[in-house]
Amino acid sequence: MKKNFNLCLEIEFFIKVAITCAIFQQFFYWVLNDIKLNVINQVVLYWLVGSVSFYAIGIFVEKVIKKNEQLREKLKARIKKVKKQPFPAFTAKGIILGEIKSFIAALVILYLAPEMHRGNGLLLNLGWFLMRIVAADFCFYVSHWLFHRRFFQKIHLKHHEFIDTSSFVAGHKSIIEYIIVTITDILPIFIFGYDITQLLAWTLLGNAYNLEGHSSLSIFFIPSDFHDLHHTCFKGNYGIQGFWDRMFKTLIPPTKKSGIMFPTASLEKITMKLSK
């Protein structure tokens, strides 16, 4: 029964991402529906949404949530203790170089990928995002697994300089890893095309998940210490969530955190009590 609940929790993650992305897509469609955007406008908008949301969400997690002791303890997902590390300070040079990389990536993606206008059909977008997260998870799993093989490991070592993770470790990677991860993330876009409103929603939610996943907290998307265990053990848990790791037997079993944001985990807790 416990194994079945574990799988349900992983499927719940896919559904939660799809539903949340679909909601934000509706918002972006409402804002942009009557505005004609050429490719350059779309590139700038895509870059701005990605950059602003990355810093805004990261600062909120680190400076608001983590500074509140009660909230931090309530949301803490880390189980394995690690030695605390000082994190590199933000510098003007680092931010500028990071934004140049992001802008070039946005330009290349929107120039090469085919544009598809999918409108605001809620079910259509929900299905697209569900397909998108499952496909993106598989692409990320494969590339991440390769990063931990001997030949590619040096590319990935910069990201693993920090065992005591913070949200902004999500963006701490070598230029080669940045390019490869970007390609794997947008591969489904080249196959299925993009709608700018879908792309903006995906970027916003992708940043939220990625930053939360490196924060050692369980806020909305992360019901466990899944990715935290990957950083503390340097192996296993290569996917965005545990589905593909379970399929390919690379899963380090996480400790789930039940709560209102994670109904499957709460249902498991209730069922286990009733079965005793």
UniProtKB/TrEMBL annotation:
The molecular function terms in GO held by this entry are:
iron ion binding; oxidoreductase activity
| Protein name according to UniProt | Desaturase
What PANTHER family does the database record attribute to this sequence?
Answer: STEROL DESATURASE (PTHR11863)
Positions of the Fatty acid hydroxylase domain: 130-250
Q: Can you list the GO cellular component terms from the UniProt entry?
A: membrane
User: Which compartments is it annotated to reside in?
Assistant: Membrane
Keywords in alphabetical order, please. Answer: Membrane, Transmembrane, Transmembrane helix
Gene Ontology biological process terms in this record:
lipid biosynthetic process
Name the InterPro entries for this protein: Fatty_acid_hydroxylase (IPR006694), Sterol_Desaturase_Related (IPR050307)
Spell out where the chain crosses the membrane: 12-32, 44-65, 86-114, 126-147
